[in-house]
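Below: protein 1.
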Amino acid sequence: MIPVRIVGLALDVKSQPVVILKPLGEEPGQGSMLPIWIGGLEATAILMAVEGTPPPRPLTLDLMKSMLETLDAEVERVEITRLEEGTFFAEITVRSPGGLRVLDARPSDSIGLALRTGTQIWVAEAVFAEAGIPDQTAEATDEEAEVAAFSEFLEHVDPEDFQG
């Protein structure tokens, strides 16, 4: 498993949200990135967590976090585990008084919950090998430069590029 961070959230040429993950320790323009296409609502939930913007009312992931805390449980690990026919799969490991439980989940929900709970996100090496792309972005000097670089990347990529 490879520990990752979110380096971008953008729209592709078809206005589909994409979350971009990158291994920890890799600098901009080095190594690889992993684009995962997600839904619009999920993108909004992730963006709010990245920006630290509180929602006017709890979103589903905020409710999940609150439920876990109320039940004396915590998210121990979030993993993007596999890619099948262009669909990413994830698991959330929860530690509770009853022990460890591994839950099947969508990557978008897993990422959103990890951001809310401060949990590390991991990606299986096989997923990076299959769907990772070279990071050809230049080192950004500010957020606008990063957004421009991802927009440039997204103008030339299509979800079908990552289907097996």
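Below: protein 2.
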Amino acid sequence: MEELAAVWDNLPPLAPPLIEGILRQGHKMLIAGPSKAGKSFLQIELCCAIAEGRRWLGRRCAQGKVLYVNLELDRASCLHRFWDVYRALGWQPKSLRNIDIWNLRGKSVPMDKLAPKLIRRAQKKGYSAVVIDPIYKIITGDENSAEQMARFCNQFDKICTELGAATIYCHHHSKGAQGGKKSMDRASGSGVFARDPDAQLDMIELTIPDAMRRQQEDQATCKACKDYLDAHYAWQDDLSEDDLLNARTMLSYCENSLSKWQMNDLRRQIEEEKGRALRRTAWRLEATLREFPGFEPINVWFDYPIHRMDESGALGDIQPEEDKPMWQRAAEKNKKNAGKRKDDRRQALEEAIDNGNFGDAPTVSDVAGFLGKSERTIRTMVKEHGGYKIENNLIVKSTGEEKD
């Protein structure tokens, strides 16, 4: 015990920040989220950022040594992940000596036995941070028991105290919908997990609207076209800045400027870029902090294998699915289902027209018989489709000018 008056005029200095505005050196941080959120990649990105003294999630990291305790991946996969992350970040690995990896897949032991071994091996290494990934491999006791999880979390305190290093670890969400919960209550198990660390970053997935997905596809097309033109054609005097952002303009210009085999090659690259765009997932990170004031959630794209900040701000307006009122979720589900049903009707009609009269233009009666529907329903389907018209009771392709 000490008297506050004795130190009032000579307060000890605070531990310096390890991650600007999030975590101090020698403190604990939990990253929580569902599977497929890329939590392990996020921690590897953090290891690289600390080693190089770069930014992580837009926050400056103090440069230092870091130990990554790998409990889940085989050695080769783990090493390749670090290589992939460095490459995707575009960073020169100037400070690789600042990263040590302890591969323990198949050799992990409970945390109360791992902590003393870790402390003994790392005592003189001078680590700024120890990253343990993931903790479900080393949990001792029932994760829903506050008493047992308190003893488990005390092992992280020992690591921090003995090594003077920050301890960073990840954990999974509990089952069920998460959006209606506070960010600190989403981690699986006892509430001790959320209340013990000095900083918690919680990840929740954002559902990307169809319009945003189409915009991403257009951007992917523009990027592929520009990259191909940069490598194969002198276009600089022909296209404006606005043209470079218009997918139709770019495709039309390429079709008029490139040879047939070049266009085939470009179309392949466009499909690859579109595929990458469609594989991206969107995530929101909410922080619960003990040492720093809170801040607005961080929105990122998980563009395998790294997380990229949402520089455009487009993700800021998306509301997590579980946070939406019940009526809104039902309305959106009905709208989505209605769109699928319309697509199914279009496809069925096209198949019936192609096959209803052995390749010749079928009659309304032919298509009705093929689909097992009434002629009145077929007329409605033709009108809804828009690509066909009924002429002398035959269903033929429409030029787009006539309407039945």
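The chain has a mean pLDDT of 87.
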